[in-house]
Design the sequence.
């Protein structure tokens, strides 16, 4: 794994992409909550939350390196 510097422009682009990804996850979660029921809704919401967390961690890791 190589370490490289991230320019402010790249960091801003990552933050913009993260914002859109989180919005997409929120829309999908809302649709899932409104249309699904039972255990499947719970599973889908947990999965979307995990994907959102993974995306956030990846962007924070890139901004630290």
Sequence:
């Amino acid at each position: 794994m190589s370490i490289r510097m991230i320019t402010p422009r790249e960091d801003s682009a990552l933050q913009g992409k993260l914002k859109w990804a989180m919005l997409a996850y929120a829309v999908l979660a809302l649709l899932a909550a409104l249309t699904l029921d039972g255990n499947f809704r719970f599973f889908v919401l947990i999965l979307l939350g995990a994907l959102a967390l993974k995306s956030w961690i990846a962007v924070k890791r890139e901004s630290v390196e």
About this structure: DSSP finds two helices and no strands in the chain.
